Each structure stands twice: as structure tokens, then as C-alpha cells.
């Protein structure tokens, strides 16, 4: 690969990455707006974010985490 071809290839990769990063920023802004709408409708955004994180987890990991949380709560006398 000639140096000008390599430079063009590198430039293309960098520009594509920059475009993707811009799209990610736009999507984060969209997510933020969605949370604002939900809050305006009376939903608890903190709880919604927690639910989103839980739904991302694999079922086995989620059950393990829930069991550990229950064990810690019992040890501390929380409900």
C-alpha cells in the first residue's frame, strides 16, 4: 500500500469514527430528552435508569445480583 493510499485509508477511518461519535452524542441527547418526557409524565427517572440497567443484564447475572442484595439487606435488617 502506498503512503498516499495508507493516508487516505487512515483518513477514511478517522472520519467514519468521528461521524459515529457524533451520532452517539446525538443519541445520548435523544435518550436524555426521553427521560425528561418521562419525568414530565410523572415517572421516576432514577428508577427507570435502574430498570434499563437491569434489563441489559443476563438473567443469571441479574438473579445472582438480586440474591446478593437480598442477603445484604437481611444482614442489615432492611425489610
From TrEMBL:
It comes from the Bacteria. Residues 6-77 form the GapR-like DNA-binding domain. GO terms for molecular function: DNA binding. This is GapR-like DNA-binding domain-containing protein. The lineage of its organism: Bacteria, Pseudomonadati, Pseudomonadota, Alphaproteobacteria, Sphingomonadales.
Amino acid at each position: 500500500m502506498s503512503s498516499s493510499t495508507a493516508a487516505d485509508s487512515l483518513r477514511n477511518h478517522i472520519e467514519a469514527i468521528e461521524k459515529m461519535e457524533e451520532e452517539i452524542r446525538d443519541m445520548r441527547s435523544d435518550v436524555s430528552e426521553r427521560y425528561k418526557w418521562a419525568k414530565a409524565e410523572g415517572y421516576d427517572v432514577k428508577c427507570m435508569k435502574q430498570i434499563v440497567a437491569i434489563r441489559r443484564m443476563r438473567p443469571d447475572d441479574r438473579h445472582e445480583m438480586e440474591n446478593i442484595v437480598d442477603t445484604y439487606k437481611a444482614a442489615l435488617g432492611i425489610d
